[in-house]
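Second attempt. The first submission of Cbb3-type cytochrome c oxidase subunit had a stray character pasted in from the spreadsheet, which I only caught after the job came back as garbage. Lesson logged: always re-copy from the clean sequence file. Corrected sequence (317 aa) follows.
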Amino acid sequence: MSTFWSLWIIVLTFACLILCAGILWWCLKDKMGVEEGQSMGHSFDGIEELNNPLPRWWSIMFIVTFIFGLGYLALYPGLGNFGGLLGWKSSNQGILSLEQSRAEAAKGEGIVQYDREVAMKDARFAEVLKPFVEKPIAELAYDPEGLRIGQRLFLQNCAQCHGSDARGGTGFPNLTDGAWLYGGEPETIRQTLLHGRQGVMPGWSSMGEQAIEELASYVLSLSGRKVNDKEAQAGKLKFAVCAACHGADGKGNKALGAPNLTDNIWLYGGSRSAVLETLRNGRNGVMPAWKDILGEDKVHIISAYVYRLSNPEKPAE
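This time the job returned cleanly.
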């Protein structure tokens, strides 16, 4: 905040306080020219106004509140750029990254409420989550209490993209159908959550519109869709540029996160227009890394919940 606006807020604040104090002082003095308890000469609907003083309890509460307000403004931030005598902050201001936030928290300067609460909650939850973290993901996925915790964590942190039912949407994978870009094994899911994923599908508009149309026909034919056979045959010859990631058979490559094009499951839509859009302009998908945001313990529990979504039945031992 600039110095001008800081001073503006300070001046207005004290002007209001002085005005309120002046009004109270004026009301406590008899300035009406009429003896106490006598009529003010006003009446309405049979009710007559008398010259009575302010109730003492009301005046005392006003004075106490006024003093409290002055004390609050002195101790806590609120007057422009003045940070308060206690140095308290609701959070570290101007933080642009997690690394910067941790660096500020490590300094321990003043009382930063958010940092204190995060540290307190982390310490508390570390003990609560410990019995669940010690279980392998594949086992924890069928623990009722661990599953409930995992669901809550999922709803708080993952549902914004994948939906509360985890069925995803355009550009956000469905986590319940068993179709995995990078693999659905417990440890693979955990690694995805810890470190995130970044998928890049290049655009092929430089090939020309006719080639794009032919490629789209071939790609759609891979999942059994009815297309122009002539176009599909021409597109098959051009599919070599796609096979490097999706494989010669179009079944994808989990090491690269390249989708299976034969299962009729489409991340960005399976209509011809959607496939054409993908081929022309490419796609860029980002799954954020949660290791530094949630920590490994919570990621472990969410991994178990996500694993359970596509494995509702516990494998036979």
